[in-house]
Design brief:
alpha/beta; Rossmann fold; homotetramer
Chain lengths: 194, 194, 194, 194
């Protein structure tokens, strides 16, 4: 993948930054062959980033707003990826089929979708909620615990530096993007499965 | 890959953390089929993390200390990866062959290795230097500029949170691991290549 | 004041750190002659720090637990300050008299005390709530808005560095202490005062 | 002092922020009656902030650029402080007299001034160097060690938050201002003083 993909892709109003995409990759344990469910697509940065790493697995991504849906398709073409299914629907109302290794949500009201999508997450799979605010994280975290997931919440700050005669972080820029909540759907021990 | 690999692998005294591995993946643009050169291996966390994502590409990793070399091989077996070549040599003295898409260095004195390994980095490839201190970063940055690389230096802070009735970042823990310096070996425009 | 006071004073289980005390001083605009109301005293670090700067003003500080009350008195003696009144009572149940320029709260359930203590805060005065968690801050913030205060919430991170041949922040230590919420009791314009 | 002084004072191109002024106050142990030497004055924010807390002590501040010198005098008048002596000279070339409890430097090349001003710092006094970059800090730190000072370097990050239905740090703003280096001029034990 072009290491400058995040700089060169077309941006809608909000995108998942490279730092958060990298952290999602590392903490979800994404691997070749994984199948990922993603919503909302937005500009498609996260879906594309994950699709690249999940090959030959596939990413299925939902977006209700047509202009973003189209923008994301354009960005995927630029990135040369064909393992993404773009669906122009509100995931909250869609009938979601299949089982996924990883589910990533970057949309309003993620908590209600945990209940809905639990059936689509494989045992051992990882549910990722990305949210700019604490409130949505708290709600989703509560749902994770209800479903017996192992939950972990982190924030990630990346600062760019100037290096040279005068070395220091850049003076201003992005301070906060979103919180990252991970829920591992712990596989049940055998005796409980019968 | 097991999302808990970083928790479960055997640790030597120092390891690249999941956060830094994720950032290296995202900023280097690692993709299926990439070939990676890595040194020093240490406990093998970074080599294993990148090997998983680079399949069917390969990671070649150098480590001069035999006990780490062996530990890393064990960790790779646990992770079930076979696309890593572990070499028990000091990369500074070894004869390194082949061309790589990504080079990652986590060892003392990275600057002198930029000169040595430039010939092993493909045009458009990314050179990553991970260092706990500013001084090594400054030295390597200077080398990057000499070789015409586009350089970017960042630091990355991840904080774990407690979520519930009382929500806040954990009170103590890891503050600093290392700085991350990326150098892109810009491909020359055609007219300059003749 | 001894620049090492914070290192040398006797510590109970939790103390306000120098960084937070400094930020409280700067954002509250504490000045010579200010009168400060403080609760809970804890080990007395904040009361002592503010009392030093507020001279010849006074600090009145409430603490319900006798052992902390006594510890704080000892620390004040060490610091050589006589402008602090230590009261061994739960401020939530005490009858608080007088008007103060600054009120600082570092205790459980600060929101309910905003209502109680508003009458003790001079117009133009500053109400400071220090809390380890977001929930208490949200509750107190809501109270501040009810009372027409101008509210500002910040967090403050201080990292210590190693400087020398290898320069970098220390690798581990304190990540989070508390959030700092400031409410300015805006003085009413003249026409509304009659 | 008006808690909004930092918002209302007239700003030149660069000012010491409230957060850094608060940290300097806390780590230097400034107290009523302290005498402070400060350079360069800049817009005068730090001199004014410290002068307010040091009363009835005095702040002597040097600034070589006439327009800043005048601006700072204006800001001090607004703040209603009369215990500041503004000197329109380059401190590097001036003949500095008197002994001070605290010296604060916010100018280029602080290291060379440590040597010059050591004689103006009382035993037990605190030398503060504020610098945007690591290089100046390293140089000044080396000087501190030469003079037997106890040195401590920190950075301080303050983030403002939005609090309400959606609670989170503001998305962008100031990331880095400067590093803060403190040197305590340890008082010699008696036997070495003769």
């Amino acid at each position: 993948m072009d290491p400058k993909f995040f700089d060169r892709a077309i941006r809608g109003p909000q995108v998942v930054l490279r730092k958060d995409a990298g952290i999602i990759a590392a903490y979800s344990g994404i691997s070749p062959g994984c199948n990922v469910l993603d919503a909302g697509t937005g500009s498609g940065f996260l879906a594309i980033f994950l699709a690249n790493l999940a090959q030959p697995g596939r990413v299925t991504t939902y977006e209700k707003r047509p202009q973003f849906h189209k923008l994301a398709i354009k960005n995927a073409k630029r990135a040369g990826l064909e393992n993404i299914e773009f669906i122009n629907k509100d995931i909250a109302r869609a009938r979601v089929r299949g089982e996924f290794d990883i589910i990533t949500l970057d949309l309003k009201g993620p908590a209600r979708l945990v209940k809905k999508l639990d059936k689509n997450l494989k045992p051992g799979g990882v549910f990722v909620v990305y949210s700019p605010n604490i409130e949505q994280i708290k709600d989703a975290h509560k749902e994770f615990l209800k479903f017996g997931y192992e939950a972990k919440m982190i924030d990630c700050t990346v600062r760019e530096w100037k290096v040279g005669i005068s070395t220091h972080p850049v003076h201003s820029g992005i301070i906060h993007t979103g919180y990252l909540l991970f829920g591992i759907k712990v596989a049940l021990p055998l005796e409980n499965k019968t």
